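Exercise 7. Predict the joint structure of the components listed below.
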Amino acid sequence: MTTQPPQLKKKDFESDQQVRWCPGCGDYAILSSVQKTFAELGLRNEEVAVISGIGCAARFPYYVNSYGFHTIHGRAPALATGLKIARPDLSVWVVGGDGDMLSIGGNHLLHALRRNIDINIMCFDNRIYGLTKGQASPTSEFGKRTATTPMGSLDRPVNPISVALAAEGTFVARTADVFAPHLQAMLTAAAAHKGVAFIQILQNCIIFNDRAFAHVTDREAKNERVLYLEHGAPMIFGKEKDKGIRLVGNKPEVVRLGEDGITEKDILVHDETDESLAYMLSRLDPKDFPTPLGIFRRAGAPSLHEGYQAQFEQAKSKDGEGVILDLIHSGDVWDVK
Amino acid sequence: MEVGQSLAWGEGPGYHERPVMITKQLESLETVVIRFAGDSGDGMQITGTQFTNTSAVLGNDLATFPDFPAEIRAPAGTLPGVSGFQVHFSSTDIYTPGDDPDVLVAMNPAALKVNLKDLPRNGILILDTDAFDKRNLKKAGYESNPLEDGSLEGFRLFAIPLTSRTERALEDRDDLSKKEKTRCKNFYALGMTYWLFNRPLENTVTFLEKKFKKKPQFASANITAMRAGYAYCDASQEFQVRYEVAPAATEPGTYRNIMGNDALALGLVAASVRAGVPIFYGSYPITPASSVLHALAKYKNFGVATFQAEDEIAAVTSAIGASFGGKVGITGSSGPGIALKGEALGLATMVELPLVVINVQRAGPSTGMPTKTEQADLLQAMFGRNGEAPCPVLAPCSPGDCFEMAFEAFRIATKYMVPVFLLSDGYLANGAEPWKLPESMDELPACAVSYRTDPEDYLPYMRDETTLARPWVRPGTPGMQHRIGGIEKAEGTGNVSYDAENHQRMTDIRAEKVARIVAEVPDLEVFGPESGDLLVLGWGSTYGAIHAAMKIAHKDGKSVAQAHLRHLNPFPKNLGDVMKRYKKVICAEMNMGQLRMMLRDRFLVDVIGLNKVQGMPFRIREILTAIDEHTS
Ligand code: SF4
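Solution:
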């Protein structure tokens, strides 16, 4: 009879290392939610591998009691891909910031997504370079003044969700550091997803870009200007549930329920399997629209490591288990007596 | 087959000239070099390979060297589009594909122009006269037709309308277009060389039947063309002499003709099987390393995982990820790709995981000459990372040796938990030689891998007393969770450390770990006198040319010896003593003096450089000239 090991607690996933982010940094809240979720998922410390690149966020593995690898700038998704192919049994989590994943490591993010490798990618987006002291990042707004852009940034920002969708991401979600229950729900859904999961986590850098997401996380905003996506549910938002998104032609607009005879039936219903809808949602401009949080897209597709396993088995059933001497002695061989 | 017998006659159905029985002379030769040259679309590589395989089965010793343009199909008829394949076959031991050809087969004016300078006077020259029209002559830059202006005098010229003869041989084949018929001309030429050197056609017949299993009309067309070429020589008055090259007296055993990259791939798989640990090969396509990836991709039934990464950096980092997971990560590329991997190689050095890094070198810098060989990445392998990041460096010395050295790289990487460089080059990658196959696994060195599973007293950066390797712990092992990364590690715990003393100590340990690999390095042996006037030192693919030169120099009574390095870091421990025993030391390498710089630095010996970067391996005579210059 095997006894089930006791379920671990959040503190079991805390490492003995002192956490060194700035006081008030959004990373603390994310760390806490991740540790809690790992425990709730029933994971064992040893079956988790946390892989990071470079940047403030990338210090993450040191603080989690699991196997961890703090790699080099931008390369975490590539390294994690190799790890997952080699070790499909592990639960692999990738951590990086917006600079790490969308600038120097943009290529790896693109390919990890399109390969659908079963890893969970958490992109801590604070729209700034923190560790190098406040330079414009690929998600910084156009015209933003930073150390490197004293007269305003000339680069147009990328939209991480649009990028992830365009890269064929099969699980693409957005959440925010301070919304612990929502964040944990996204992590749990990502863990359950077979294939690659990409979560943009809006994260506040209190030192270099404070309140970058105030339009989402402020008390008023969180009630009135956030659209919580739910599969199969109409896109209604606002504290009073009085606002919604309607499609006119293929253009979305914000409408008020009850005004001009508008009822729930007129409101767009979220469908996680609809790619075009997901893309449209990723393009909603916070000036005119609520910011969607939740799962933009969730779709089934074969995962990379399953493909590897299938080919190994296919090769073995076709050619038999490899015998190295036979392989060496294959081809045009001849004997000298 | 007997001389004078018109064996192939009648087997070329479209061949209508009357047979004439001519008695031909048969001469014995010790060694012959043939170069097939044509447009890159003319199938010269396949022609050369067929001649090689047939000769291998006959028991000749051989060495081959393909020389092809970077473009898959450069404009037809132009000089850059010329593709060549040289095969050296012999009844005695040989070590190189030969300096100059004895026979040149040139399928068009461009091929003639590029290659004629290498053909010695009195050499055999076979030309396709059909290709010598105005347009082709102009494309090759000929002002006058060399067939008419007397410039080919002094060669044993066989000017033959190969294209039209091939067409005639296939004239009753309604199932083939004109183009499909003329495309068989390389096999017509192959048939001629088979006759000239008295080789059987069966191997190639079997090969064609297999290759064109799904399109048997092409198999039969090429076979017909080949037989027609053979029959033509047999019948023609022009060909009076044919040559015989007897089998070489090679060591008994089973042999296979093998190219360096294929041997390299097999060596990796053999080590993986021996160690019982599957490999993960992360790579990005690049000339001339891609064929390692092609080969390994076929070995899935050995559990070999190949990963065609999005770029060179992902290729190496995915391999490091696999090593972290407990598989053996391997990455392969050529110089430009290795440059991109530099940062990740520093990471592998820091986290002390096993990694094999293959550099199939090519002429650089930058894109350089992708299909041409060079050895100019030695210092890159030694020092091409930021900070103090020493790596062991190995270099195979022949195509077959790629097997052994790949195995060795795997063994050292896993035993010492360190990234290991394996420096092959384009010449070894595509060159081929008969390789004596191991008959049992016992002939391969022991290669054992162990993972630590005991959490008692475990620290991620604790060390093996002998090798200084840290323990390899696979994620998934309970109670041994740990974090690694590129930030400096505290000795023992592996925690992040910015401590000054600790950084010095860890830097010293990483260097010492590599230095201790000297225990694995066999003493350097010399070929020739134990002491004397001159030592010629080389590394990697220059072995053959130096060895062949050495044999000639010894016959001439020169006081010269050869020593060849397959371990470049660490060096064999007796290297300094060996150099001291000779009045002068020459270092021959296909770069501008990289090993020489290392030798001078380490041993304060005034090593003389013999350097060449022409995208081509050394010729034997270049080595001989240097020997002459430095010996009395
Ligand atoms: S710099 Fe910003 S992102 Fe970095 S730790 Fe400090 S608050 Fe967090």
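Discussion. Chain B touches chain A through 68 residues (CB under 8 Å).
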